[in-house]
Amino acid sequence: MTPRLTPLAFALITPLTFFMSHAQADQPAGQAIDYAVDGEAFAGYLASAPDESRGTVLIVHDWDGLTDYERRRADMLAELGVDAFAIDLYGQGNRPVETDAKKAETARLYEDRERMRRLTLAGLEEARAQGAAGPVVIMGYCFGGAVVLELARSDAAGEMAGFATFHGGLTTPDGQGYRADTGPILVAHGGADGSISLDDVAALGRELEAAGTPYEIEIYSGAPHAFTVFGSERYQARADEKSWAAFLSLLDEAL
């Protein structure tokens, strides 16, 4: 039987330790999954639990598109006994490099929320088709964190057992809101984030409290935007490790 995903499991596989030990690997441990949504081609990534899975984590990429960063996170989760599927919201082969191109891709989805939700749920459907098991928690980084909250506010929220956003966008569009019957939400935020302010965090907290939505907000002192991104100048191991431990606690509650 797969052990419970308690915070103690965190001690066995810290994010930075995993990254350093796998940095030289030629291939990720999981498998690339090509799939189609309404005739459009997409390229996801599936990492399956080696034994019986406790459930599934759906991973939403940041504004770079699906890269080795999300694949590494999926591999980490698989080693902890869950199936992980990293979805693709941009389309096969579309991995923008320049800042303007990244902004254009995210704007395309921010301006078409219905497409954002549809592609996310199509990723979940593909994960199920590939054998991903049990209840689902959805997590996302930066842009992906905003997508997570979009799902938490949608009619599809009931399909998810929990939600986690790491240094993600927190603003609620006009006409949207949260509900009390939504699964637990984890918000992991850097105190030194120059892109998403503490005022934004406080506003979200007020919304969730008023709605009666179960949530936890963690703020990590000195952590900048994108504090979980391995190898970058913004990476902060302390905040990454604490947010990962908080996420494992959410998985233990939700799965």
Record keyword descriptors for this entry:
8 strands; 7 helices; 18% strand; globular
Give a description of the structure.
The chain has 255 residues and is of the alpha/beta class. It has one domain (45-254): Rossmann fold, CATH 3.40.50.1820. It has seven helices and eight strands, in the order H-E-E-E-H-E-H-H-E-H-E-E-H-E-H. The protein has an eight-stranded mixed beta sheet with strand order 1-2-4-3-5-6-7-8, sandwiched between helices. The mean pLDDT is 92.
- The CATH topology annotation reads as Rossmann fold
Number of domains in the coordinates?
A: 1
Order of helices and strands: HEEEHEHHEHEEHEH
Corresponding CATH superfamily: Alpha/Beta hydrolase fold, catalytic domain
User: What's the CATH class label?
Assistant: Alpha Beta
Class derived from helix and strand content: alpha/beta
Count of helices?
7
Percentage of helical residues?
25-40%
Strand segment count: 8
Distance between the termini: 14 Å
Question: For the residues shown, what is the average pLDDT?
Answer: 92
What is the oligomeric state here?
A: single chain
Task: Please give the order of strands in the largest beta sheet.
Answer: 1-2-4-3-5-6-7-8
Please describe the biggest sheet, giving its number of strands, its sense, and whether it closes into a barrel. 8 strands, mixed
Protein name: Dienelactone hydrolase
Keywords: Hydrolase, Signal
Organism: Halomonas saccharevitans
GO molecular function: hydrolase activity
